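Here is the promised in-class demo. Please do not try to memorize the tokens; focus on the logic of going from shape to residues.
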């Protein structure tokens, strides 16, 4: 079994494309198994000690639709002892008061359920007003903005993946 489970929801494909790049960077499908959240079950989460969560923000500060559908079900998963990393895509110019909110909402929930967060990310190089993903002056996970900064995405993913290798110990 692979060492990391990556759970992703995506409406227009950007977060899914990032998931594939993250998987590739971490060593391919022998290391990371991608689960689309619309097909996932609780037992899929329970298989892994290392989890990556990918979710874009939609509808002004909301979770992507399939993640929204799974949100209550998360209460039935025991995340204690699991390391959890988060990434999302968003639009800081179009939605500066809600940039990346979705991963902030998921991180708050999963931390309450016992997960320990890894993969914090600096907020330098972005311009926005507010984000639920910002805690203690950092993003709780990787913030990607393909709507305005697509030229930075590849480098950001590479840097974050190197950090995750250390923090997951894979
Ligand atoms: C109607 C609409 C609402 C959006 N709301 C937000 C938002 O509140 N915050 C944000 O950061 N991005 C927001 N976005 C931008 C999307 O999150 C961004 O395009 C993202 O990359 C889409 O990811 P996906 O292709 O994986 O679905 C919104 C986009 C649309 C079209």
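The designed amino acids, position by position:
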């Amino acid at each position: 079994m692979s060492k990391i489970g990556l759970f992703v929801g995506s409406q227009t494909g950007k977060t899914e494309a990032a998931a594939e790049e993250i998987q590739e960077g971490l060593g391919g499908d022998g290391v990371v198994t991608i689960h689309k959240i619309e097909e996932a079950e609780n037992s899929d989460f329970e298989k892994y000690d290392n989890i990556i969560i990918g979710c874009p923000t939609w509808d002004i500060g909301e979770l992507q639709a399939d993640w929204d559908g799974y949100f209550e079900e998360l209460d039935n998963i025991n995340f204690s002892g699991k390391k959890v990393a988060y990434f999302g895509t968003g639009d800081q110019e179009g939605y500066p008061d809600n940039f990346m909110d979705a991963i902030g909402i998921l991180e708050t929930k999963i931390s309450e359920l016992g997960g320990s967060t890894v993969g914090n990310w600096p907020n330098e190089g972005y311009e926005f007003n507010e984000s639920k993903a910002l805690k203690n002056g950092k993003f709780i996970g990787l913030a990607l903005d393909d709507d305005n900064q697509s030229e930075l995405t590849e480098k950001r993913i590479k840097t974050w993946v190197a950090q995750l290798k250390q923090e997951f110990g894979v």
